[in-house]
Amino acid sequence: MAGTEIPRRRRVRPARPVTSPLAVSLVIPAFNEETTIERCLLAALRQTQAPREIIVVDNRSTDGTAAVVRSLAESHPGAGIRILRQFDAQGLVPTRNAGFAEARGDVIGRIDADSVIAPDWVANVSRAMGDPTVGAVTGPVTYYDVPLFGSSPVSDDLVRRTLWHLGKRRCPFVYGSNMAIRAQAWQAIEDSACLDHDDVLHEDIDLAVHLKQTGIRVAYVPRMRAGVSARRLDSSPSSFRAYTHRFNATYESHGIDHWTLRAPRHLLQGLFWGLRSASSLTSSAARTAEDDFGLSRRV
User: Which domains does the chain have, with CATH numbers?
Assistant: First the structure.
């Protein structure tokens, strides 16, 4: 009919498939962490996306670590908190491996007993792992007991991002206090990852090397925030020097050498005295971190 406007058909976009969030298991190695483990677990309980399970691996603790974990597990029966004893050998690597072996999630989050993860940590890990090309992720940390940094979410990000870009072609890093690995990626490198019987390597850097050698991609996720303690600054200068030398020892054990991979060691040694003088390691500073990460409210 003349003068009649025929309405245009709207283009219907195909619906995007709805995918369920990946299940994330949290593994926390612990040795005499009575004073830090509660804060760590409270942060894990306050997630916008709950972890599938929270596994604390007790490595020959002689203090009240296990009692604190059991108390929280009893008061949060649906949270999946459990404690695993790894008393066969002293050391981070066998303790980590024992926890990884028990994890049942699609992704295994690995943090330290003094880590305080942000409330959206699990959600951000799950989202980043939604990219099937990513096998492991790591992110920035804040130092909650260094008043100079306070609880700024970007205090560590600039440095860590720079180091990431410097080293990613040769060997990207993962940071053991704030990392996650796809369960399938761990299975691919489990048999080759170094056991480090002499305790001279950085176990997280070793994981990164094996991931790189296996062709598994590691991604840096700025939104994957965690707070950690700067208590290592209480070490003697010689002890801290030995700690930073682990970077070299790890790369050398794999026949890898480049100045970009030595940068973290030199940076940490350069910052040692400045950060140590700024750190008070006080409970009031820790409370500032609790406020920032949402732990000041009852869980």
Answer: 24-292 (3.90.550.10)
